[in-house]
Automatic annotation (TrEMBL):
PROSITE patterns: RIBONUCLEASE_P. Coiled coil: none annotated. Consists of a catalytic RNA component (M1 or rnpB) and a protein subunit. Gene3D superfamilies: 3.30.230.10. GO terms for cellular component: ribonuclease P complex. It comes from the Bacteria. PANTHER family: RIBONUCLEASE P PROTEIN COMPONENT. This is Ribonuclease P protein component. Transmembrane segments: none annotated. Its EC number is 3.1.26.5.
Length: 142
C-alpha cells in the first residue's frame, strides 16, 4: 500500500523539481481547442529540430507560461514520437523560463530531426525560434 507523499506520482514530482529548481511554473496545454487557437492566432517559427508556435496573451490573461507538445506520425512510430516529446520537454524544463518572455502560450512540434539532433542543437533551435516569434528575453539574446 502506498503512503501519502510516497507514491509514484510524488517520485516524479520530486524528480522534476530537482531537475531545475529555479524554473518558474509551467502549465501544460491539454485541449485540442487550445492548440488550434495558438496555431490560428499565433506566430510560427520553423527550425531544423522543432517547430514553435507562439501566441501572446492579452494583458488580463497573464499567468504562468503555458506550453503544449505534439509529434505527428511523420516523426515515426509511437516510441519515436514519445522520445521526441520527451526531448522537447527536457529542453523546455531546462531553459525556457530563462529565455522566454512571460505572457505567452507555446506549442512545440517535433520534427524527424528532433530525434537525431544534439541537445545543444535543440537548445539553439529553441532560442532561434523564440527570437523569430518575438518571445526571446533581452538578456538571452546576447
Amino acid at each position: 500500500m502506498l503512503q501519502p507523499g510516497f507514491g509514484r506520482a510524488h517520485a516524479f514530482e520530486s524528480v522534476f523539481a530537482m531537475r531545475n529548481p529555479s524554473s518558474g511554473s509551467l502549465e501544460r496545454l491539454q485541449k485540442r481547442s487550445e492548440f488550434l487557437n495558438i496555431a490560428r492566432n499565433g506566430r510560427k517559427a520553423v527550425t531544423q529540430g522543432l517547430v514553435l508556435q507562439a501566441r501572446t496573451l492579452e494583458p488580463g490573461q497573464a499567468g504562468p507560461l503555458r506550453i503544449g507538445y505534439t509529434a505527428s506520425r511523420k516523426v515515426g512510430g509511437a516510441v519515436q514520437r514519445n522520445r521526441a516529446r520527451r526531448r522537447l520537454r527536457a529542453v523546455v524544463h531546462d531553459v525556457l523560463n530563462t529565455m522566454a518572455v512571460p505572457g505567452h502560450e507555446f506549442v512545440l512540434i517535433a520534427r524527424a530531426n528532433t530525434l537525431t539532433r544534439s541537445y545543444n542543437g535543440l537548445i539553439a533551435d529553441l532560442r532561434r525560434a523564440l527570437s523569430k516569434v518575438g518571445a526571446l528575453k533581452q538578456e538571452a539574446q546576447s
